[in-house]
Specification:
The protein is an alpha/beta fold. Helices cover 31% and strands 19% of the residues. Component of the nitrate reductase NapAB complex composed of NapA and NapB.
Length: 774
């Protein structure tokens, strides 16, 4: 498979050059790299079929070459409007992730402390009987399923249908709660409806790109190459606003560093400047915006059974203006680390009526104990200036998983969600119940546990059964040791569906081998509301089965044959056709399957045979119905909300005992926990283990050199990692950075499980740590 890898080292180096942007000739997507992709491909008549890439939420289109029943090559799809033929280093090697030597191929059941191979029928029978037993003994809220933004749309849909519609519990969560829940609550609180109003086409129109804590060069390199292409074509500006110097910083026209958590204050200072300089688009704000203030001092979610509900109060513009007086650039400069001059520099782009601005963010804003607030504040900037829902004027939340938008946000695989709405709304429950053919009383009216609280409930014993699919929480959960120990307690039954052994399969009572990506049929939904279909191209190994069909089989064994009537040979089409009923309206209509099969994805809302690129703008969006230029129809009055949100410090800040900030994140070679990319030899060799980045001055003071062992200690525990100084990224003084892909160096053992009280998303970006040479 994929034997022609002669130029892999060269290619990897050149991709690194692309990420670092040191050679202009490598910055054009689809030219140099399209040719280079062809150079490394096997010769012969391969059968090429389209699919979305398996990795991040950009949703690049790829062509997979199949020969003799095996995926042997991959290249960028030139017909895809997302990547236009370009692949990043992970996407280019993606098919190799199918063929790791330790692939799971048979179900495993733990008996007397050891895993024993069994048949798939026996394993599914056991799972169904254990679920029934748990429900009978402890009640329906004692069973749960924890999925992923890597679930396909059919996977997530049948999971929600089984648990919420049939069993009658809202114990459905997905790992996207850990990475984009704040983006959801930001959209919902500001606009009353989820997902970006813009699209990737905004890149071709914007004059300025501002990265809000977003290392786009490494995390979304294909999209970032499109920014670089526009800079070379049109001279656009790229501004990096971050807590650490990264490859994005190196490629930017200007890099501005801020102290952790103070992005809240800087965003407010930008709003202050916009108002003080008369840059407010008064007509837009008057016609299309309300101003609200919410509760403050709202806690950090550190205690079990934490609950919070915001209480918005409408205020007038003068009250909001008065509030911002505490956020003058000069005042904010004193504690943010950002000069008043740089704050005014940022504000000048947003305030200039002749500049189109695209704000881009990912985990830096979302994994934040005030994640909803900082999302709101960036929307405030765009709303005050009217720079929204038009080509090139776009606040845009990027996504980390291939279907975090499609399967979690659209399908609604979070405790409070339904495919078209929320469980707390009676009409939404009635609508779902009718489609699912269940009594409306089956669907509980109250959410149960978000992800952190779900694992706390497992630890406490309130949850006794958990089915984990397509994710690796025993690497990704914050304050990990508590939740790992909790999962191992007596009286818990854990099922894990995956393709490789992981620290999560280590805690399982039953391990189910899953079909991966093109070994089954499905759809993903990417960051720009693009739904993409892929067919089954190769057979899965052994008894591996799609996650969709695993759930269907268990549902039937539990007595829900009526609701899970799907035929195996056509179940994806049947499920998707049923799913589309939930979104059959101008605000969210999904393209038919036949359209998805013929095209490299299609954006929703798909109305009268056309995708909607810019929502809430009557010129482009057929759902607008207020006879105005803009209609923010997610809110009852059609107006977006400008939120008054203050700066508040992080729950844990450096002190004398723990004087550094700890930040965690990703690297370009590996994807999330590395369970797939570490099976790709060239990627594993390029980045074989985790490390801790130190600021060079801090390292010199502590007499630490590259490769030296460094002990990191927090209030949760300690970990030892090799030092990285002046290599990939450079933290600010008294800060350190650790990637989380390495299961042999579990950095999340020592992170804090605080979260945004509104979104319930944990803050992986900041806690206090002591740093010592080991």
């Amino acid at each position: 498979m994929y034997t022609s890898l002669s130029n892999r080292r060269s290619f990897l180096k050149k991709m690194a050059v692309l990420s670092a942007m040191t050679a202009a000739a490598t910055m054009f997507p689809g030219i140099l790299f399209a040719e280079e992709q062809e150079e490394g491909l096997p010769k012969g008549n391969l059968d090429w079929k389209k699919a979305p890439c398996r990795f991040c939420g950009v949703g690049c289109g790829v062509l997979v070459g199949v020969e003799n029943g095996k995926a042997v090559a991959v290249k960028g799809d030139p017909k895809s409007p997302v990547n236009k033929g370009l692949c990043c280093v992970k996407g280019y090697h993606s098919v190799m992730a199918l063929y790791g030597k330790d692939r799971l191929t048979k179900p495993l059941v733990k008996k007397n402390g050891r895993y024993v191979e069994t048949s798939m029928d026996e394993a599914l029978d056991l799972i169904a009987s254990k679920m029934k037993e748990t429900i009978n003994d402890y009640g329906k809220d004692a069973v749960s399923i924890y999925g992923s933004g890597q679930w396909t749309i059919p996977d997530g849909y049948v999971a929600s249908k089984l648990f919420k519609g049939c069993i009658g519990t809202n114990n459905v969560e997905a790992n996207a709660r850990l990475c984009m829940a704040s983006a959801v609550t930001g959209f919902m609180t500001s606009f009353g409806i989820d997902e970006p109003m813009g699209c990737y086409d905004d890149i071709d129109h914007a004059d300025v790109f501002i990265m809000w804590g977003n290392n786009m060069a490494e995390m979304h390199p294909v999209l970032f190459s499109r920014l670089l292409d526009q800079r070379m074509r049109r001279g656009v500006k790229i501004i990096d606003f971050a807590t650490r110097t990264t490859r994005t910083s190196m490629a930017a026209d200007k890099s501005i560093l801020f102290l952790p958590q103070t992005d809240l204050a800087v965003a407010n200072a930008i709003c202050y400047e916009i108002i003080a300089n008369g840059w407010v688009h008064k007509e837009f704000v008057a016609k299309h915006c309300n101003i609200n203030k919410g509760l403050t001092n709202i806690g950090y979610g550190l205690e079990d059974n934490f609950s919070f509900k915001d209480q918005p109060e409408k205020i007038d513009f003068e009250a909001y203006k008065k509030f911002l007086e505490d956020y003058t650039p000069e005042k904010v400069e004193k504690y943010s680390g950002v000069s008043a001059k740089d704050i005014k520099y940022l504000a000048s782009f947003y305030g200039d009526p002749n500049k189109k601005v695209m704000s881009l963010w990912c985990m830096g804003m979302n994994q934040h104990t005030r994640g909803t607030w900082i999302n709101n504040l960036v929307y405030n900037i765009h709303l005050l200036t009217g720079k929204i829902s038009t080509p090139g004027n776009s606040p845009f939340s990027l996504t980390g998983q291939p279907s975090a938008c499609g399967t979690v946000r659209e399908v609604g695989t979070l405790t409070h969600k339904l495919p078209h709405g929320v469980v707390t709304n009676k009409e939404h429950r009635e609508f779902a119940a009718k489609i699912w053919d269940v009594p409306v009383e089956n669907i509980p009216a109250k959410p149960t546990y978000h992800t952190v609280e779900m694992f706390r409930a497992l630890d406490r014993g309130d949850i006794r059964f958990m089915w984990i699919q397509v994710t690796n929480p025993m690497v990704t959960m914050p304050k990990l040791k508590r939740y790992r120990d909790g999962a191992k307690k007596e009286g818990r039954f854990i099922v894990v569906s995956d393709v490789y052994p992981t620290p999560t399969t280590d805690i399982a009572d039953v391990i189910l081998p899953s079909a991966m990506w093109i070994e089954r049929e499905g759809m993903y939904g990417n960051s720009e509301r693009r739904t993409q279909y892929f067919e089954q191209m190769v057979a899965p190994p052994g008894e591996a089965m799609s996650d969709t069909w695993q759930i269907v089989e268990v549902a039937k064994r539990m007595g829900y044959e009526k609701q899970f009537y799907y035929k195996k040979e056509s179940h994806i089409e049947e499920i998707y056709t049923e799913y589309r009923k939930h979104h059959a309206n101008k605000k969210h209509n999904m393209a038919p399957l036949a359209v998805l099969k013929e095209n490299p994805g299609m954006q929703w809302p798909y109305v009268e045979g056309k995708p909607t690129k810019w929502r809430f703008n009557a010129t482009y969006d057929p759902a607008c119905s207020n006879n105005e230029a803009f209609h923010f129809y997610g809110k009852p009055d059609g107006k977006a909300v400008i939120w008054q949100r203050p700066y508040e410090p992080a729950p844990e800040e450096p002190d004398q005992e723990y004087p550094f900030w700890l930040n965690t994140g990703r690297v370009v070679e590996h994807w999330h926990t590395g369970s797939m990319t570490r099976r790709i030899p060239v990627l594993h060799k390029a980045m074989p283990h985790a490390y801790v980045e130190l600021n060079p001055d801090d390292a010199e003071r502590m007499q630490i050199k590259n490769g030296d062992k460094v002990r990191l200690t927090t209030r949760r525990g300690e970990i030892i990692l090799p030092a990285s100084i002046k290599q990939r990224g450079i933290p600010a003084p008294m800060q350190v950075f650790v990637p989380f892909f390495d299961e042999s160096m579990l950095i999340n053992d020592i992170t804090l499980d605080s979260f945004c009280p509104i979104s319930k998303e944990p803050d992986y970006k900041k806690c206090a740590v002591r740093v010592e040479k080991a």
